[in-house]
């Protein structure tokens, strides 16, 4: 755990933020990292519909709400309510850590998009196909 966030929670933030920003390179990277961290494929498949899926626990929903609020700007009454609800679920230290992870991956997404980092084809084991 880093500052109250599990590796899985951190990867949820990175992947959801990258999805919203349409950063293909980062979606590819963090999908693999999320699987490596033990996140079930079904949750990865349903991540873009996490609110409707009913499969995500309280902490997972809290970190996903932080990810979305930090990515979709300006904030709204709904995102403000999501953040207010997420804070007691995560606790102050993990809440702040989630904000920093979201802010950082937003920056990396923008760098990757502007740099035109490409997604390389991979085989079923995740190895780059040359």
Shape: globular
Query: Mean pLDDT across all residues, rounded?
Result: 95
**Span between termini:** 36 Å
The number of helical runs is: 7
Q: How many individual β-strands?
A: 0
What order do the helices and strands come in, and which of them pair?
Blueprint: H1 7-21, H2 24-36, H3 41-45, H4 50-53, H5 58-71, H6 77-90, H7 92-115
Describe the structure.
- With 130 residues, this protein is mainly α.
- It is 68% helix and 0% strand.
- It is built from 7 helices and no strands.
- Helix 1 packs parallel to helix 5.
- It starts with 6 loop residues before the first helix and ends in a 15-residue tail after the last helix.
- The relative contact order is 0.18.
- The mean pLDDT is 95.
Q: Main attributes?
A:
single chain; 130 residues; mainly alpha; 7 helices; 68% helix; 0% strand; globular
Task: Write a brief structural summary.
This protein is an all-alpha fold and 130 residues long. It contains seven helices and no strands.
